[in-house]
Amino acid sequence: xxxxxxxxxxxxxxxxxxxxxxxxxxxxxxxxxxxxxxxxxxxxxxxxxxxxxxxxxxxxxxxxxxxxxxxxxxxxxxxxxxxxxxxxxxxxxxxxxxxxxxxxxxxxxxxxxxxxxxxxxxxxxxxxxxxxxxxxxxxxxxxxxxxxxxxxxxxxxxxxxxxxxxxxxxxxxxxxxxxxxxxxxxxxxxxxxxxxxxxxxxxxxxxxxxxxxxxxxxxxxxxxxxxxxxxxxxxxxxxxxxxxxxxxxxxxxxxxxxxxxxxxxxxxxxxxxxxxxxxxxxxxxxxxxxxxxxxxxxxxxxxxxxxxxxxxxxxxxxxxxxxxxxxxxxxxxxxxxxxxxxxxxxxxxxxxxxxxxxxxxxxxxxxxxxxxxxxxxxxxxxxxxxxxxxxxxxxxxxxxxxxxxxxxxxxxxxxxxxxxxxxxxxxxxxxxxxxxxxxxxxxxxxxxxxxxxxxxxxxxxxxxxxxxxxxxxxxxxxxxxxxxxxxxxxxxxxxxxxxxxxxxxxxxxxxxxxxxxxxxxxxxx
Length: 525
Description:
By secondary structure, this protein is of the alpha/beta class. Among the domains are: 10-37; 257-329, no CATH class. The protein is 51% helix and 8% strand. The chain is built from 21 helices and 9 strands. The chain has a 5-stranded mixed β-sheet with strand order 5-4-3-8-9, with helices on both faces. The chain starts with 11 loop residues before the first helix and ends with a helix. The model has no long low-confidence stretch (mean pLDDT 90).
């Protein structure tokens, strides 16, 4: 903003208004500089931006518990299985009468090495063939399934580093090296990684909504990004080098690598304003299915699309569209709403926005006058009440309430407060009306992405505790097992029992495939 050339002619009120606007402009520039500084520090491996105090809108709009409602956990004894009983005697004087026993429950843990020497019989048949008895099921190498379960649970669920895990095992009498622990964490885990991918496919095929988020992740000494995808019944993580829209679409492809030009792909390209002649070239060509990125890139080169220098980039849009076609061809995201924090790469398909992130923008604004602070409080109050009514609408939707909430949204986000920065923000939020009010069309979806933010904290903790990963298999195992830990918790399965069932621990009850359970839960709502 350029100030008037003759400031001396301005009135006192005009000068105050000019100064306030300058303060607002400076605050906005300071926020931009802070964001850039934090991003540079993060890219250099330094600390990121500080935590911002939450506004409290979600908690404040929750219904209060009825007066006198107890939150006690209840008795412990019915939940315990008694493994041993011991009689404790007392020296009673002569003439005393026995009155039975009083019970005192003590929980303890037995942690000790258990070494088994399997002496496998060997026989020589009359024909000269040597027969050797096979080892029992579950034995794979010189470390048993219980030890493998302990290592996987401690590292992935307990967030214990490899070095401390080795020290702990050696302290209790297990002769094991760091290299052997790393091999058990990363080697031969294909069954777990396959199940993690099956969970993602089941969730994307059957869920009515998913929430997404991402955070920084180090891999091979380079900065990358870990993306979370999930809902109330499953969680999946994937670490990649970038966070653009094509990358997110590739993750939604759930392990498939092909590119398909179909009606859904062409519709995506039109929606992203790809030039009509380019779409026609792709639609008219007989080749519609491509095995991988290399094959599809060669096809774009053959059609001359790669040589076009126009905006938007035809290669980028065509690639995204072909990935979207692959997603749709497999029945994924059929009627699924993707809810995000308004990051651009997540804006695909049927998209909704998080209200907590939207309100946080108002909460973070810097106000310099009493009038601005008053306007900010009023707008936040209106948003909080509107948010509470959206929660009530989810429980009892109706066309009448839908129309009333739509009109009320317009009144809140088109108001002029006189606080320039706030008015500009309200205008921007009003432009996202369709995505913020997606809940009016789909009452079953949540109003926020708190679930994703809660899920992805384990990735942040792992990054702080263990740093980055050095191999692709290490990265995949970290992502896969963290997703399985979260999915088991959401399904009500103890991760320890899940590991025992998959590793063949003796006496462990069977646990059904997580993908089947996720599909059943999602379809049941």
